[in-house]
Amino acid sequence: xxxxxxxxxxxxxxxxxxxxxxxxxxxxxxxxxxxxxxxxxxxxxxxxxxxxxxxxxxxxxxxxxxxxxxxxxxxxxxxxxxxxxxxxxxxxxxxxxxxxxxxxxxxxxxxxxxxxxxxxxxxxxxxxxxxxxxxxxxxxxxxxxxxxxxxxxxxxxxxxxxxxxxxxxxxxxxxxxxxxxxxxxxxxxxxxxxxxxxxxxxxxxxxxxxxxxxxxxxxxxxxxxxxxxxxxxxxxxxxxxxxxxxxxxxxxxxxxxxxxxxxxxxxxxxxxxxxxxxxxxxxxxxxxxxxxxxxxxxxxxxxxxxxxxxxxxxxxxxxxxxxxxxxxxxxxxxxxxxxxxxxxxxxxxxxxxxxxxxxxxxxxxxxxxxxxxxxxxxxxxxxxxxxxxxxxxxxxxxxxxxxx
Length: 404
Description:
Layout: H1 2-16, H2 19-46, E1 52-56, E2 81-84, H3 87-95, E3 102-105, H4 109-112, E4 115-118, H5 125-139, H6 145-153, E5 159-160, E6 167-168, H7 173-206, H8 210-213, H9 219-252, H10 266-293, H11 297-304, H12 308-316, H13 318-323, H14 328-335, H15 340-350, H16 355-383, H17 393-398
Parallel strand pairs: 1-2, 1-3
Antiparallel strand pairs: 3-4, 5-6
């Protein structure tokens, strides 16, 4: 057992202490930060906090109801609406750049609903939203508070599973996005960490370092240690990648209103973690088998790319999984080991899954993970001293005894 942990710790440290690992570790968060900053700047360019004006020729807004002040340390300031008695005064304010635009409600506004916008340049995107909200508030000012609030809030569509085990509304969009993000992160991590394992095995075969290693550790211990070590590498990446958005969430939660209502489902998090761990061991061991059976690192990388294909299949049928999470296709994808890491969390996000399906999916993943590790050790034992030669799968299955 001590040799197994020594191999695992060596495999872990040899990767996490390299510069390329640090670069790969930081590249994704930095890319997300850059994309976020670009998106923020794009929104900021569209926003303009300079006041806007309006002229009421209909006489309907003689005693307008002002919008509530929603500014509470947010990222963008509210647009103030200034009333002008006539269009000449509004035009002078526009010429002097005191306002960015003004609206004119014609005398027959209540009959036609027509509003005229006057501006030298297109106003900020927040101006039209503010003025529309202002008009709606005043149109409903004579209605009971319950009626006006309900109309201003708009439609609230709630999606509920038949067994009432899951339900979503427009305020819980993040629960639909999380399984997709978790699946994408898993594919990235498995390709990076599995690539490390694959490359290490092929290189040790090519430089004959393996001849020295197998004198002190068995092939099964060596292969299991490598898989667990690379699992630690993948978990390190995943943990740090999760810490970045978690820190951003804690910092921005007090400044962005909708973040204060975000709640995460612990059942989803636990099931996703178990599924991804078992799937990682299974796929990493399968990649190690490829590394033990091929002759060159380039050939191994080309073949290992085929493992990504089954993992992305659930994304092809994501609409079907969302619309019918308990259908035959959804159930089949969540049970099949190579598609379960993506499909099972997706189904959990949209419905309550029967316990037997969860147990069957995790059980199959655990079985194939253990079988893949055993099979990788068997392939490695047969091919560790073969240089420049491939090993066929038929040889691995038919070989009765191995010489260590």
